[in-house]
């Protein structure tokens, strides 16, 4: 089962409403805030700085494109491995890198 998410691409935008040192992650048409990252301070200790909050927003904004690229990479690698290793019995690649990529996809789709 694939989890559905707000279609990408997403982009970052300054949080003008809260001004908490964070950023919004917006859907492509800017009509929807997908996520928000913020600076976080507890008891005077900065746990998430403004630069880290902004970096988190950029990473989140790239997620839909990263997921699609990862799926394409796994598919291409599986096809190549099937042709080169077992042309008579095609099977998905089971190398460590492919396993990591498949786990990341499952996590993004809510299956891990």
Low-confidence stretches: none
Number of domains: 1
Distance between the termini: 11 Å
Secondary-structure element sequence?
EEEEEHH
Shape label: elongated
Beta-strand share of residues: 15-25%
| Strand ordering within the main sheet | 1-2-3
Largest sheet: 3 strands, antiparallel
What integer is the average pLDDT? 84
Give the C-alpha Rg. Answer: 19 Å
Q: What's the number of helices?
A: 2
Structure description:
The termini are close together. The chain is elongated, with a radius of gyration of 19 Å. The model has no long low-confidence stretch (mean pLDDT 84). Helix 1 crosses helix 2. The protein has 112 residues and is α+β, with helices and mostly antiparallel strands. It has one domain. It has a 3-stranded antiparallel β-sheet with strand order 1-2-3, covered by helices on one side. A two-stranded antiparallel sheet has the order 4-5. The protein is built from 2 helices and 5 strands, in the order βββββαα.
In short:
This protein has 112 residues and is α+β, with helices and mostly antiparallel strands.
State the main characteristics.
5 strands; two-stranded antiparallel ribbon; three-stranded antiparallel sheet; 2 helices; single chain; alpha+beta; 20% strand; elongated; 112 residues
């Amino acid at each position: 089962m694939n989890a559905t998410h707000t279609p990408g691409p997403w982009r970052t935008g300054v949080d003008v409403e809260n001004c908490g040192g964070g950023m919004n992650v917006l859907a492509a048409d800017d009509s929807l805030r997908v996520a928000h990252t913020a600076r976080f301070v507890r008891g005077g200790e900065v746990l998430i700085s403004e630069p880290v909050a902004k970096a988190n927003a950029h990473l989140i904004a790239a997620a839909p494109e990263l997921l699609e690229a990862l799926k394409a990479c796994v598919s291409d690698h599986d096809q190549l491995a099937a042709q080169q290793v077992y042309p008579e019995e095609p099977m998905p690649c089971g190398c460590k890198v492919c396993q990591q990529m498949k786990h990341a996809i499952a996590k993004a789709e809510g299956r891990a």
